[in-house]
Amino acid sequence: MLDALVIAPHPDDAELGMGGTIAMMISQGMAIGVLDLTDGEPTPRGSVEIRSRETAAASAALGITWRENLGLPNRRLRSSLESRAKLAAVIRRTRPRWLFAPHWIDAHPDHVAATRLTEAARFWAKLTKCDLPGDPWHPERIYHYACVHLKAVRKPSFVVDISANWEAKCRSLACYSSQFAATTDGTGVLDRVAAADAWWGSMIGTRHGEPFWAREPVALRDFASLF
Predict the structure, then answer these.
(1) What is the distance between the alpha carbons of residues 153 and 60, in angstroms, rounded to a whole number?
(2) pTM over 0.85
C-alpha cells in the first residue's frame, strides 16, 4: 500500500527532519504515509485542536494524503509491548517498503523511544502465529532522519537533494505557528533548520539537502542517480 511510512514522535517532526524528501518522493509518484505517535501536547501555545489543524495544513502543503496518529502519550513515550503491537498492526496494514524514524541518538527521550519502538515493531510485524491483525509484513529497510534535538551529528549515510522541494518544506513548517515562534535575531527553530538544510546541501553541491543514516547496508542497483 505505501512505499514508505515515516514514523514521527510528534506532529511536525516528520516535516522538520525530512519534509523536503517527503515532498520529493510524492512528486515522483510514490505513496508516502506519516504516522505521528503522539499528539505532541501539552505545549506552551498549543492544544490538541490547534495541533490537529496545523498537522492537516502541513500535510496538504507537502501533498501527504495518508496520515494517522497512534495516540500514544506525549512526554511519556515508551517502547512498551502494547505500543509495539499497535505500531506493528499499522505496519502490517500499510505494508511499506521502507520505514523512516528519528536518529537513534537524540536529546529528546520521546525521539529515542520512537526509534526503539519502530525497530521492535518492524520485527513484530513479520511474526506468524500471533494475535496481531493482518498478514505478516517486514519492511526492507529503516532509514533515520535528523531531528532538531540532535546536537552532535555523525556523518550521514547519504544526503538527499531537496532543492526543488525546499519551499514546500518551508510552507509545511510555517503551518505549525503554535510551535515555532518568529524571532528577529535568526535563532529560532525555522532559522536553524534553514541553515542546516543549506549546509547539508553545500556538502553535496546543491542548495539544500537532508541527511539520513542507515544502520544496515544501503543497496544500489545502479549508479544513475549518484552525483
Answers:
(1) 30
(2) yes
Note down pLDDT in tens along the chain; length 227 residues.
999 999 999 999 999 999 999 999 999 999 999 999 999 999 999 999 999 999 999 999 999 999 999 999 999 999 999 999 999 999 999 999 999 999 999 999 999 999 999 999 999 999 999 999 999 999 999 999 998 776 667 899 999 999 999 999 999 999 999 999 877 787 888 999 999 999 999 999 999 999 999 999 998 899 988 88
Closest among 60, 21, 65, 5 to 171, alpha carbons compared: 60
Q: Which CATH architecture has domain 4-213?
A: 3-Layer(aba) Sandwich (3.40)
